[in-house]
Amino acid sequence: DVPKATEPRRDSDGPRRGSLCDRHCAAINNVQGDLGDLGCHLHRPRVPPAVSTPCCCQQPSEEVCESCGVKTTLTAENAVEANKLSNNYKFGFKKWKSHVTARPWEDRSEIVKELYSDLNVVRSSAGGWPWGRNPARWQRGFGAALVTTVPPGASPPAGSTVTWGNVLYLLLFGWWLSLLYVLVAAGMFLTVVGAPYGQLCWDLAGYFLWPFGKVIQKVEDPKSRQALGTCETGTEESSALLGGPVPSRWRPWCWADAGHWRCASTVAWLCLGYPVLALAHGLACVTAWLLVVLIPVAKLSARTATRVLLLPPERVLVRRLRMTEAPPEGEVILCCYRALNPYYYKYAVDGINVFAVNLLPLVLVTLVLGYVDSHNRLTSSAIKFTLALLSIMPLSYYIGMAIASISAQSNFAVGAVVNATFGSITELTFYITALIKGSREGNRCYAEIVKSALTGTLVGCVLFVPGLCMVIGGIRHQEQRFNSRSAGVSSALLFLSVGGVFAPTLFSKVYGKLICGECHNVTQNPLGHYLCHNCHFDLMENNGTLYYSHVQPLVYTVSLLLPAAYLIGLVFTLKTHSHIYDIHISDCHMPGHHHNAVVHWSRWRALVILLLSTLCMSACADLATEHISPILTNSTISQYFIGVTVLAMVPELPEIVNGIQFALQNNLSLSIEIGNCIAVQVCMLQIPILVLFTIFYPTNFTLVFSDLHVYASMFSVVLMNYIFMDGKCDYFQGTVLVMVYFILLAVYFFAPSPSGC
């Protein structure tokens, strides 16, 4: 993401973080460093005092230091990204890590450039390396250069293509692709007219068994064609491209003055050989793409099926590169060295992360199975529930990106309305559909599941999300600092919201009548002790006078006060006291940097995607609630545990990933704000909306929680405020938060099922 900048810090115990401007300044001084994360960040060694780095902009830093007494400067690439970065620090706005605009190619890190590189660049042993890079600076996943530390111009070791990823390719794809090519080659030889394609398949069989260190080239079109005979390539013809004689080729039979597509061999190939190989490469392409780290194999298969296999066989040359020879001149169709690249988790298609792209077909499968197979003839309810729950994750991602795109391209008012309207749409969709189903069936268990999910979201966002970010971020950074003043505002709102949400529960405990389902005299004495089971506080005594006259008005009052407090918090943090964030958007750019933003999604496109994702989310939530009943009734696990874990945290996975990415870049303030903002919205927006919904559509939902929910929520908020008091943390404090969260999960796991389930 775009780096942040503060005043220069003179740390002696670790490397400093840099940005685009640092990279330019370092290039001026010939300061070499190690490649950093995705984006424009660069790790480099600390410059000695004797070396003065000319400042082409303000010194950037990944650390937000609140004790420096200066504003934190965010260097944005364009106005849209600047608006998105500013929105990340606004209370109530969705925090989004990924770019909403296309980054210029020159601003990307070398690792990212490698992800998007074509598979047609050959390493040069004499004339340098691709793009003029030093091989010591590269970590190539799949493309032109090898992972090596040899100096420029030297050849890598002979066995450098034998890696674990390449061996994995051999086991998963290489052997059966090669065998299939051998079988197709035999079939084409049997047709006689397809013999040239049989020779091509034979050559490709050896290539796909181990394609690393080999190239597929396109040779020049033969100039001599006979009228009725053959289109031949002489055996003694030599080419500067190959540096020697061209291997002999079979002579394809074709009609007089006919092009390639009217040759008899081509007809036989398109009817017999190509469909089989195209299907095989399609299967390999889809499988490798879904595995993400093997996307290079997907690129290899896609280019083979769409280009190599459609060329005339006499124009395709497969050769192995020798480490000592100069790279061939002319067009190279395929050249690869690595089948696996772990950095492909950063890969994006039109700004969409590859995991969200891969999970999108899952949404279609879920909707088709859910509404076509309504009687569970093909799959069971448990499978449909799992698919519906997994489908919520990519839809949450698309909703989040659409909200961030619209907010970044709009003014403050539009952004605030969009975030307030759709910021909690994922959770509310599931809660409302569950309450409607429980009301129709007269099953109180659905209302208890919704309460458990609300509590699980609150506890998870207060303990698990910031704790996990502290642990992962603390592995890279010894100590992380964050804005304690902005965290204090969120903490105060959390105290207020938790107190308001659980006020009706405490009121019912004080004035409700304790009713027990079954009591036994353990002493056989009428005046002795009694052991009672299934005890609860009854609010409906005397025709519900206590509930309707006292508890229900309190619930409505709290549901009005909490959104009002949320609005006051927005005004406080965004208008009257916005300086507590100490954020300044800098217009520092590298020389020659383009200021025009090319957005991934325009406002109208983002709006359409937002509406479609919301519609699909409603359908998936309906399917999840439709097929959750067998799990609730037949499962041996407490319904409390299902609500506070699966139903509460699965929709928040995109937010958790964003928080981890911010923490890795030493921006723990945003990681903490992600969890706090969700927790505040649960109490101050989602719960009042559910109460308002019950007014127009009566359900079994009442704002009276179990004792376990009350104790877990209050303890979590108190612990979180204690950890965040000093404005700095490390991985140990994060471990404490995560362990407390797991302890609470263990309590929910062994807790008996709630009443009504």
Automatic annotation (TrEMBL):
Subcellular localization: Endomembrane system
Alphabetical list of Gene3D superfamilies matching this protein: NCX, central ion-binding region (1.20.1420.30)
Keyword Endoplasmic reticulum on entry: no
GO biological process, one term: intracellular calcium ion homeostasis
Stretches assigned to the Inner membrane component domain: 165-214
GO CC terms of this entry: endomembrane system; vacuolar membrane
Pfam families found in the cross-reference section: Na_Ca_ex, YccF
Membrane-traversing stretches: 167-190, 276-297, 352-372, 378-400, 412-433, 453-475, 487-507, 554-574, 606-625, 637-657, 678-697, 703-724, 731-751
InterPro entries: CaH_exchang (IPR004713), NaCa_Exmemb (IPR004837), NCX_ion-bd_dom_sf (IPR044880), YccF (IPR005185)
Ranges of residues in domain Sodium/calcium exchanger membrane region: 383-502, 606-748
PANTHER family attached to this UniProt entry: VACUOLAR CALCIUM ION TRANSPORTER (PTHR31503), VNX1 PROTEIN (PTHR31503:SF10)
Protein name, entry field: VNX1 protein
Organism: Trogon melanurus
Name of the gene this protein is made from: Vnx1
